[in-house]
Amino acid sequence: MTMNNILSNVRWKDRSTECELLLGNAGEAVITPLKGGLEAEVYKVTMPDTELVFKIWNRDSRPDISLQYKVLEQMYRHGCAVSQPYAWGLDPEDNQVLLTSFDGVPLKEANPSILTAIAENLLDIHNLPGESLTRINVPAYDFADYFFPEWGGQPEIRRLALGLADKAGITSHHLIHGDYHAGNILEAAGSYTIIDWTNVQLGDPRYDIAWSILILRIYAGEQYSEVYRAAFLAKSSYSAAELELFEALACLRWLQLHRTTGIPVFQDTLSVVQTVLRRNSYLPEGLL
């Protein structure tokens, strides 16, 4: 399969100058499928001098790829650890497509240096100057409605989340990823690149951080999560008490997903979650 087979009928809506040059050499490219997610098919585009990723949202999910493209442009220009965006458009079936740089393979290992690096990368996203986003119209959703929607059918969890969100004083002034974890980080030659911006929005960085800490704690272990948490505390102005409150919200989000749409559960996952719930002073007993 060549690049032309996939890209020849794409109606490009926005593309960079670099993309014009790349498409001009499309005949030299070879495309191979990569492991996709629940939302899209993903292909690696190999050319003589570069490698790209071509993503097609041809499943049920319909995120705003024009928004992702514009946000990626701004983040990349400011030196954030994200893929370089080249173009977005529509295929003949009106599925949205995105062309970006290829930035390695999913993160498979961790040590204090790596954990500190990926914590700093997320903080760089949160610290992106607000004026760089003013022309993009990045959405700012109601926190509870987005992460704990009523259609989720979990009124107890939503009630607890609403109370904790009120106590926390949720803000929506910073760019957040919305689902930051190792599966959305690529590694290549000691660099770590953040991918999958489906949930990008203006939100509260403390929740973004807390969710990523919780996912690391559940699936990688307490030793790693404590080093990771310490990195955020050392590199930001957030307090341990703040993070514990937002980790409680993250726990409620994990429980909601576990009860509804599903989230990975392995042999010891539930016992780990039970321990996390028991240790958090903001959460009542009996949630799991």
Can you describe this structure?
The protein is α+β, with helices and mostly antiparallel strands and 288 residues long. It has two domains: 3-101, Phosphorylase Kinase, domain 1 (2-Layer Sandwich), CATH 3.30.200.20; 105-279, Aminoglycoside 3'-phosphotransferase, Chain: A, domain 2 (Alpha-Beta Complex), CATH 3.90.1200.10. The chain has ten helices and eleven strands. The protein has helices spanning 3-7, 17-24, 65-77, 112-126, 143-147, 155-168, 205-220, 222-235, 240-259, 269-279; strands at residues 11-15, 30-34, 41-46, 51-57, 85-90, 96-101, 105-106, 174-176, 185-188, 191-194, 201-203. The strands form three sheets. Strands 1-5-6-4-3-2 form a six-stranded antiparallel beta sheet, with helices on both faces. Strands 7-9-10 form a three-stranded antiparallel beta sheet, with helices on one face. The chain has a two-stranded antiparallel sheet with strand order 8-11. The mean pLDDT is 93.
